[in-house]
């Protein structure tokens, strides 16, 4: 009996160690590339705001901010490696958030 | 069932401390969702008022120093990079590099707050504060813009301070070897919090500084 539990324990520990060392190892270079991308997107946002594009400025700024957010979430916050359940949580949260916006603005625009 | 209880007993005998990194991470994410709703509500308020007072918002934002805003954006993005690198370093058992990266993060956070201090001082000096002389001559849209500006950047600044304290505690844990290459979920969670603070600023920057 105790032999069985021993083997289960070591197996579980081995699995735990594996998840920690193999699952998430990302090279320093990858993070630096992501950062360069984020800085480039920031300068694009500032440049676009300098050109007078009217309402397109806001749309472009928000789209770029969304791309930056997904870069931070996917790479820096490690959503890339996370369990499906956490990804689903994030998605559900964003859908609820989007629903708030759609409901509020469908009300505001048709007053 | 008996097998299971025996395992648990065995685990206790060996002095094994129960730890569930996945649950810890999930709890952190759930907390971040409440933060998203907190700021999300304010962003919604901003959206609704900007929709109604588009001109007032533009006039008010014209005085904003978009250069300082851009510098602060780069500072926060860089601090997010250093937090991500600190996690990569602890995974490779490079304790010194990890702590160095976190020190750099704290410096970035402080630099952000110093910039914010100068910015707010400038605006307060110009009479933009509740009951201030400049605010009395402004249109409704401008007053709403500055109200949201102070509340949202102020709440964000508070989050930067909390993030710095969080990272400070994590650094003590690392230096005492309580956080190691196989046990670093606390560091990961402080990173998640810091990245959320960064993401909020990613939206605050264009919404308050880049209205033309």
Concise synopsis of the structure shown:
Chain A has 111 residues and is mainly α. Chain A has 4 helices and no strands.
N/C terminus separation of chain B:
68 Å
CATH T-level fold name of chain B: Four Helix Bundle (Hemerythrin (Met), subunit A)
Q: What would CATH call the homologous superfamily of chain B?
A: Cytochrome c oxidase, subunit III, four-helix bundle
Mean pLDDT of chain B: 92
What's the number of helices of chain B?
A: 8
Assign the CATH class of chain B: Mainly Alpha
What is the averaged pLDDT score of chain A?
A: 83
Could you please describe the fold and organization of this structure?
The complex is a heterodimer of chains A (111) and B (212). Chain A is built from 4 helices and no strands. Chain A is mainly α and 111 residues long. In chain A, helix 2 (28-50) packs antiparallel against helix 3. Chain B has helices at 2-13, 21-52, 54-61, 66-91, 95-125, 133-136, 140-175, 185-209. Helix content of chain B is 82%, strand content 0%. Chain B starts with a helix and ends with a helix. Chain B is elongated, with a radius of gyration of 22 Å. Chain B has 212 residues and is an all-alpha fold. Chain B has one domain (21-209): Cytochrome c oxidase, subunit III, four-helix bundle (Four Helix Bundle (Hemerythrin (Met), subunit A), Up-down Bundle). The interface between A and B is large, with 56 and 52 residues.
List the helices and strands and how they pair.
The complex is a heterodimer of chains A (111) and B (212).
Chain A: H1 2-21, H2 28-50, H3 55-76, H4 84-109
Chain B: H1 2-13, H2 21-52, H3 54-61, H4 66-91, H5 95-125, H6 133-136, H7 140-175, H8 185-209
Helix pairs in contact in B: 2-3, 2-7, 2-8, 3-7, 4-5, 4-8, 5-7, 7-8
């Amino acid at each position: 009996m105790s032999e069985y539990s021993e083997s289960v324990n070591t197996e579980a520990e081995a699995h735990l160690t594996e998840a920690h060392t193999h699952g998430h190892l990302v090279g320093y270079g990858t993070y630096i590339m992501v950062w360069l991308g984020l800085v480039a997107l920031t300068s694009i946002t500032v440049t676009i705001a300098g050109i007078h594009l009217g309402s397109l400025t806001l749309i472009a700024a928000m789209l770029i901010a969304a791309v930056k957010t997904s870069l931070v979430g996917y790479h820096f916050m490690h959503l890339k490696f996370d369990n499906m359940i956490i990804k689903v949580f994030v998605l559900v949260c964003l859908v609820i958030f989007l629903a708030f916006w759609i409901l509020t603005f469908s009300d505001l625009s048709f007053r | 069932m008996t097998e299971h209880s025996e395992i648990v007993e065995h685990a206790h005998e060996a002095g094994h401390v129960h730890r569930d990194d996945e649950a810890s991470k999930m709890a952190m994410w759930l907390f971040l969702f409440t933060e998203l709703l907190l700021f999300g509500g304010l962003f919604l308020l901003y959206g609704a008022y900007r929709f109604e007072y588009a001109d007032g918002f533009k006039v008010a934002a014209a005085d904003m120093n978009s250069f300082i805003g851009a510098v602060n954006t780069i500072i926060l993005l860089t601090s997010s990079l250093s937090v991500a690198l600190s996690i990569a370093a602890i995974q490779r058992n490079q304790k010194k590099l990890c702590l160095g990266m976190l020190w750099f993060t704290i410096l970035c956070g402080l630099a952000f707050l110093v910039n914010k201090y100068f910015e707010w001082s400038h605006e307060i000096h110009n009479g933009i504060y509740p009951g201030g002389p400049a605010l009395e001559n402004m249109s409704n849209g401008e007053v709403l813009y500055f109200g949201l500006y102070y509340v949202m950047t102020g709440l964000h600044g508070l989050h930067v301070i909390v993030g710095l304290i969080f990272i400070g505690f994590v650094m003590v844990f690392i230096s005492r070897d309580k956080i190691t290459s196989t046990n670093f979920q606390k560091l990961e969670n402080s990173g998640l919090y810091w990245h959320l603070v960064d993401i909020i600023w990613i939206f605050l920057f264009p919404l308050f500084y880049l209205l033309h």
